[in-house]
Amino acid sequence: MSKKTSSLLYLIIFLALVLRLAGISHGFPFIFHPDEPTIVQSALGVRFDPNPGHFDWPHFFIYANYFVFNIFAKIRDLAVDYNIQNFMIKIFPLMWDDTVVFYFITRVFVAVLGGLTVIPVYKTGKVLFGEKVGLLSALAFAVIPFHVRHSHYSLPDTPMLFFLSWGIYFAARILSQGYPIDYVFSGLFIGIAASTKYNGGLGALTVPLAAFLRRVLVKMRLSENLSETRGDFPYFKTVLNLILSGIFAFLGFVLGTPYSVLDYKTFSRTDSPLGAFWQFTNVGSVDFAEHVSKFFTDISFKISDDMGYTILVSLFLTLGVVLIRFLKGTFSRFDVSLMFLIVSALVFIYYISGFEKSRSQYYFIIYPFVSVVFGYFCVWVVNKISLGMKPLYFPVILLLFLAPFYLSVDTAVRFLRNDTRLDLKKFLETEVPFGTRVVYGSSDAAAVSKYVFNNAVKDPGKLPKGTRYYYIELNKGVSSGRAIFEVSNKGRIGPYITVEEMIR
């Protein structure tokens, strides 16, 4: 790697980290996301019982947090031993606030893994198409808006994608080189990804696909363009390598979630979130007609919005370019590499769109593939448009990256401006007279309401007739009564909030 390339990659990593760490303490002292406590409490509970006892999520991320928390605890103990705790509190005020400090630590852990995912994405682009594509692929991943947003929470999706991206990189090496070690590491990282969140296991499909396309390159006599030809193993060796990859995938999963074997009875349950197989029933499924419809609607709206439009559009434009080359007889090894990325992305999109609940984070697994396709597409477009004229290079790249970059920066700024419910907390603490009854119209306002007023209730019918009370409404305009407080969620995280003064 040249010094210039290294410097650019460091800048991209820095950008990715800044976007994901901005406003990382959002919501404190409250934890508004309902799933974050599951991770933190399970990780803290490992010190008492190494079996978390529930398999709605696999356990690798829980154990990783336990390890990180232990390091933090040792540092805090050392601060006490050397009598520098007051100094440390000035630097890190949350250090002894056990109500939020572990949430802060795990969020930073997730954000850092999210930012560092640009490294395997860069390496995948580089091994398939060269350094320029690698850098642009990394930059594309760095500014995917929904990944920036989701990386602000202690949830397993972002860490899963970090490990899956390494698995994809080694699968790409199978396509370009085909050494047994690539099968081993690809399987291992995909197994760890599945042990972080189950859908990471879908990445296992990329290994046989890469092996198959490797054979296509050999059959089409395109392998002379590859950097290494000693990886052209006979058919039976390829099968053995696939078996080897599967073994290491299994080992990676079991090492991360050992109680999937040791407590298989709970792991295999389908009747509650305690079991892993419950996930398959929880997401539901749709019939074929609705599946096809959801495939196109999810692409057109959900995935497109989450990725910043131009990144996803490049997937289909590049597919068109590859098909045209195939029909014209100009198919090259780069087109085979593109098919590895495009086929994987489309298969995963189609599969996930068949869920009744096809949430945005389920599509995380397509992000590395689409990012590398976008990196290739950028270079291809620049070469077609600029015709070698350097002055056109940066304007074209800027235009292609404008939408995702703007949306990712907007997302980071929203977290910096913090949650609207903290404004509600301040209003209740400073403006609502002592003794006033408070009613919250949504459970999302319960934590703040009860934090300030222990006797806050959700049902105004429980109040005595004639009681004057303040009614907190989320995501709706004023319905009746007199609005005395209002905060918009425009450019903010959290709900739109109004508070009305009413009489029972």
UniProtKB/TrEMBL annotation:
<keyword id="KW-1133">Transmembrane helix</keyword>
<keyword id="KW-0808">Transferase</keyword>
<feature type="transmembrane region" description="Helical">
    <location>
        <begin position="334"/>
        <end position="352"/>
    </location>
</feature>
<keyword id="KW-0812">Transmembrane</keyword>
<feature type="transmembrane region" description="Helical">
    <location>
        <begin position="307"/>
        <end position="327"/>
    </location>
</feature>
<feature type="transmembrane region" description="Helical">
    <location>
        <begin position="100"/>
        <end position="122"/>
    </location>
</feature>
<feature type="transmembrane region" description="Helical">
    <location>
        <begin position="128"/>
        <end position="148"/>
    </location>
</feature>
<feature type="transmembrane region" description="Helical">
    <location>
        <begin position="199"/>
        <end position="218"/>
    </location>
</feature>
<feature type="domain" description="Glycosyltransferase RgtA/B/C/D-like">
    <location>
        <begin position="106"/>
        <end position="213"/>
    </location>
</feature>
<dbReference type="Pfam" id="PF13231">
    <property type="entry name" value="PMT_2"/>
</dbReference>
<feature type="transmembrane region" description="Helical">
    <location>
        <begin position="364"/>
        <end position="383"/>
    </location>
</feature>
<feature type="transmembrane region" description="Helical">
    <location>
        <begin position="239"/>
        <end position="261"/>
    </location>
</feature>
<feature type="transmembrane region" description="Helical">
    <location>
        <begin position="160"/>
        <end position="179"/>
    </location>
</feature>
<dbReference type="InterPro" id="IPR038731">
    <property type="entry name" value="RgtA/B/C-like"/>
</dbReference>
<keyword id="KW-0472">Membrane</keyword>
<feature type="transmembrane region" description="Helical">
    <location>
        <begin position="392"/>
        <end position="409"/>
    </location>
</feature>
<keyword id="KW-1003">Cell membrane</keyword>
<feature type="transmembrane region" description="Helical">
    <location>
        <begin position="60"/>
        <end position="79"/>
    </location>
</feature>
<dbReference type="GO" id="GO:0009103">
    <property type="term" value="P:lipopolysaccharide biosynthetic process"/>
</dbReference>
<dbReference type="InterPro" id="IPR050297">
    <property type="entry name" value="LipidA_mod_glycosyltrf_83"/>
</dbReference>
<protein>
    <recommendedName>
        <fullName>Glycosyltransferase RgtA/B/C/D-like domain-containing protein</fullName>
    </recommendedName>
</protein>
<keyword id="KW-0328">Glycosyltransferase</keyword>
<dbReference type="GO" id="GO:0016763">
    <property type="term" value="F:pentosyltransferase activity"/>
</dbReference>
<dbReference type="GO" id="GO:0005886">
    <property type="term" value="C:plasma membrane"/>
</dbReference>
